[in-house]
Amino acid sequence: MKQIFSMLLAIFACVASQGQQITWTSAKQPLKEIEQLKKIIVAPTFKKKDYSIADFGAIGDGKTKNTVAFRKAIETCNRQGGGRVIVPKGVYLTGAIYLKSNVNLHVSEGATVLFSRDSADYPMVFTRWEGMECINFSPFIYAYKEENIAITGKGLLDGNADNDHWWYWCGARKYGWHEGRPGEQKPARAILHQQMAEEMDPHKRVFGDGNFLRPNFVQPYLCKNVWIAEVKLINSPMWNLNPVLCENVLIEGVKVVSHGPNNDGCDPEASKNVWIRNCYFDTGDDCIAIKSGRDEDGRNIGRLAENHIIENCEMKDGHGGVVIGSEIAGGARNIYALNNVMDSPNLDRALRIKTSSSRGGIIENVFFYNTEVGQYKEAAVRFNMFYEKPGKHIPTIRNIWVENLHVIGGGKYAVLSTAYESSPITDFTMVNCKIDGVKETFKVDYLKNVSLKNVIVNGKEIKSFD
User: What is the pLDDT of residue 445?
Assistant: First the structure.
């Protein structure tokens, strides 16, 4: 009897798993799903009461450290039921800011939140670093297990990083590191990788001073109902916007201009119901990169990146415009990018999925619709299953739909794909795509169930990749 019950459980699990995959036959189907998702992802509302940081002792002279004033204002606002914490005009130097439930940090037009260059101003917290859990420097703006939080306003968030502060920790000469200069992340990064591989308790993976793992800029962690609107971010030490394990995230009208190492614009990680709209990205790495954790951590936690909309955004410099990966071991499902514009001689790829057999996971139901591209360097569409070191967890990429992709000045390839023979890219559709100016039409291997409908490259219709 137990054996029969176990067999039934296995069958039900298999059916449930298969039921998650969607086979689209037209663009109308995912467009309907997108409209339903938009009804779920809405900005949180806040009590109509304001708390100015000036009333808590903040001085906007760009020199006085205001960490305590921010903390007192946010804690008071939270304790009294919520509202807006106002940053008035001025330049406010501060250390880490901790957001709490029902608080909207409103950075007024003409206000700058300038973050300290002293690592001591970023106390140790539980965080993720490159998709791995650990104890490290606090992100500059951080929240943990909070609900209904926001960062709004037309002001500026300045991470204050440069080649002499934070960036050189990456160990690259381009960013100020040189032989004999103290501060390089490689040893600590290797230790963290090993600790993750050994599945050490993340709370025992302690870094911070002397380890040179740069903090991210904004990281809500395990939060619900997150809203980030209209602010501008510059000079981040590392990733800019990084909601981790969050649900219902709305990011709109945000501008990210940050060209440091690993300066991804927006990296929603293992999060559900995310809408990024009307934003501008000009970055030192991927503009938007959807993630779900690295290797063992991503697989063990098992949280997908699920139900994401990327809409009406503009991308300039970056390694990729709209990207999935590479820290994607938890998988990704139902990713919709529509009506986005990309154009820069320093943009490497437009649409990119990157992973490896050290990651594993299933990436499925990805829909790119109405993408306008001026120029890029490498490929308009790029699949890569060999992004980093190999492992024993071959990934799956399936059901990818690209429609109305228009490129004026293509780079080396229209489509570039590298996959495993045992795990080909499956169910890949391109419809009404026009790509001009490429040197080579395509370079692909191991693609299965490919459908090309009205795909024109350099003036010639491409009916197959054979």
Answer: 96
